[in-house]
């Protein structure tokens, strides 16, 4: 049996900034879709969470080294990761996209990246994707840990482009981060909450129960609308 999570506190690792999924509000509190989701599920299933905002790769590693019980960080459910993690039911369908500086008129396709450097976040699906097409298009790839560094590398011209998840790029562009997209989005996996493979089955089951409840009573849709607007 999965056992009970009631009254327990779980350490949940997350990214630093991956808006609108996780970021700090004006008061410095962690907020966003993932944060509201885990807090709502914790409340409905009777457990507590201790959020550790450490960065994406660090969050994934924290679970692998058992310093955290779970990770919620817009983490894509990939076959490769399934070897090391157990994932919840998917909660958000995502995908990868390229973004360039808003004022850049020289890049219209991946072919225009020839001889240039692109950035992507350490340990992500976007980094894997960028690397997979790098030699074909003749660009080099630099991995960075944080979103703000990636975006500033593009804004300052040190990098020609950033590869990141499309809902995050869209949100940032809408907020005026100085970037734009010029290419279509690439397929990416859906997001899931993850625990170490074979561990924390009760927490995973509670997450799925809470998620299902939120999906069926409309509160999950409401949560998406809160951060993504009516088209969510
Ligand atoms: N969805 C991407 C991945 O899991 C990126 C996650 C993130 O940057 N927080 O690889």
User: At the fourth CATH level, what is the homologous superfamily of the largest domain?
Assistant: Periplasmic binding protein-like II
C-alpha end-to-end distance: 36 Å
CATH architecture of the largest domain: 3-Layer(aba) Sandwich
Structural class call reads alpha/beta
Task: Give an account of the 3D structure.
By secondary structure, this protein is an alpha/beta fold. The chain folds into 2 domains: 9-92 and 190-228, Periplasmic binding protein-like II (D-Maltodextrin-Binding Protein, domain 2), CATH 3.40.190.10; 95-187, Periplasmic binding protein-like II (D-Maltodextrin-Binding Protein, domain 2, 3-Layer(aba) Sandwich). The protein has helices spanning 33-45, 56-64, 79-82, 125-137, 147-155, 166-174, 201-216, 219-228; strands at 9-14, 23-24, 30-31, 48-53, 70-71, 85-87, 95-101, 117-121, 140-144, 161-165, 179-180, 186-187, 194-196. The strands form 4 sheets. Strands 7, 8, 9, 10, 11 and 12 form a 6-stranded mixed sheet that branches. The chain has a 3-stranded parallel sheet with strand order 4-1-5. A two-stranded antiparallel sheet has the order 2-3. The model has no long low-confidence stretch (mean pLDDT 96). The structure holds glutamine (GLN).
